[in-house]
Amino acid sequence: MGRRMRLAVLAAGLWAAAAAAAPRVAMLADLAADLAEARRLGAPVVLVFTSPGCVYCMRLEAEQLVPMLLSGEYEGRILLRKIDITSGDPVVDAAGRRVPARAIAARYRVALTPTTLLLGPDGEPLGEPLLGYNGEMFAYYLDKAIERGRARIAERLAAGCAEAAAYC
């Protein structure tokens, strides 16, 4: 093997190792468990709806979501998950039933990817979804949505368990 070929193989191996080590946004597997954790934390579940081959979904993850994970600033403040709106793979819904992943998208009326939706601990949306991905401005809109979502959750928790049973 020539020197150039060895360097190319080494570079490819290093690139693959770096890509494998990079954090990824966790796929939604059990919404009921995530909602219970969100309740414990007093935090929203940030659910990003994606689809295979969606270039903007890939950009959103690489340019915004992975840096959010790496920053550590959102740890304990949100639960971040993604879900493929076309997938028939089983996931657990908010009621604890095993359903195809696409049923979660249908439940929240998501047809466009990427769509980012913040859910309260009761599984209900905390506001309007963020549709699409517009680059740098997305971080601003997502941060504002997270602030509003956390405030709504705090208000509901402050209202007391009798009025906000899903949050207690």
Automatic annotation (TrEMBL):
Residues 16-151 form the Thioredoxin domain. Keywords: Signal. The keyword Secreted does not apply. It holds the Pfam family Thioredoxin_7. Residues 1-21 form the signal peptide. The keyword Methyltransferase does not apply. This is Thioredoxin-related protein. It comes from Inmirania thermothiophila.
